[in-house]
Amino acid sequence: MRLLEVNDLQVELITGDRVVRAVDGVSFHIDRGETVTIIGESGSGKSTTAMAILRLLPDDLAVISGEARIAGEDVTGSRDVIDRLRGRAVALIPQDPMTALNPIATIGRQMTEAVRIKYPRLSTAEARAKALDLMEQVHIRTPDKQFAAYPHQLSGGMLQRVLIAMAVSTDADLIVADEPTSALDVTVQAGILDLLLELQEKTGIGLLLITHDLGVARLMSDRVHVMKAGAFVEGGPVTEVVDHPQHPYTQKLLGAIPELGPWHDPALEKENSHG
Ligand SMILES: Nc1ncnc2c1ncn2[C@@H]1O[C@H](COP(=O)(O)OP(=O)(O)O)[C@@H](O)[C@H]1O
Ligand SMILES: [Mg+2]
To answer: pLDDT per residue over 136-166, tens digit each?
Structure first.
């Protein structure tokens, strides 16, 4: 069975008097051990796709249609389904580690609480031991010391490791990571991406990765889908899409990588000169 199967997913966002079709009929799937990446410019609908699959969009903001099956169960209908699956079959690594944790609770307390969602019967000492073990698995040095710390005392990279440990604590087969390194320094990014690859190798999790960074996509993905204005314009094995982009939009994204040289779009330059 597929970890994730999305069919013709549509999301309409309702704000005041406006309706935006932020996701306009996307289809894709993820099997065990695979990383599938959605790449696209800011505003193309990547996060909305992920948040719709996790049902993290408020009902009065978002109207979802189509199908999104996690471990075979369609989450687009009743919220009961995702309530059962979130933190069990699927877990989220959030975009901004600085704001994802409770600022007034220690790392240890938050890790222990995360562990207890999966293992409610553990004693305090057992939950602590399990939390420390998870912190070691994500290569947090001196986990004892970090356990007693508050979020503001940790670096962004360290906080993201804590959040990855929390995702791992669920034993979920599918992890959704929305721009997991975008808020971090370039030097820290590589370590976090390495960690995700290592965890995947070890546990065979499926990863839905969202990024606007083709370098990240190239490093991490088995398959990529290129998203523009709510729809996928092309997709396939990462080497194919990156080395032989068919769609002009993908060629532009590729051109946006500085190493590959500057990209000049006369139409856009003209537009900008009027602004
Ligand atoms: N809370 C919201 N209310 C209204 N419109 C939104 C909201 N969040 C996103 N949008 C709109 O939906 C579209 C897709 O946004 P998003 O999924 O965040 O893109 P991405 O993650 O690719 O940058 C954009 O046009 C954005 O303006
Ligand atoms: Mg986003």
So the answer is: 999 999 999 999 999 999 999 999 999 999 9
How far is Cα 31 from Cα 232, in angstroms, rounded to an integer?
19
Is 48's C-beta closer than 6 angstroms to any atom of ligand 1? yes
Query: Is residue 108 a part of any domain in this protein?
Result: no
Angle, alpha carbons 42-45-250 (nearest 5°): 65
Rounded to two decimals, what is the model's pTM?
A: 0.90
For the stretch 70-124, pLDDT in tens is 999 999 999 999 999 998 899 999 888 889 999 999 999 999 999 998 899 999 9
CATH number at residue 6: 3.40.50.300
Query: Do 167 and 206 form a contact (C-beta atoms < 8 A)?
Result: no
Q: Is 91 in the pocket of ligand 1 (CB under 6 A)?
A: no
In a domain? residue 145 = no
Whether residue 161 lies inside any domain: the answer is no
**Number of domains the chain is built from:** 1
- Whether 119 maps to a domain, the answer reads no
Q: How does DSSP classify residue 260?
A: G
193 CA to middle of ligand 1, Å?
25
Q: Which residue range is the domain that position 16 belongs to?
A: 1-89+210-275
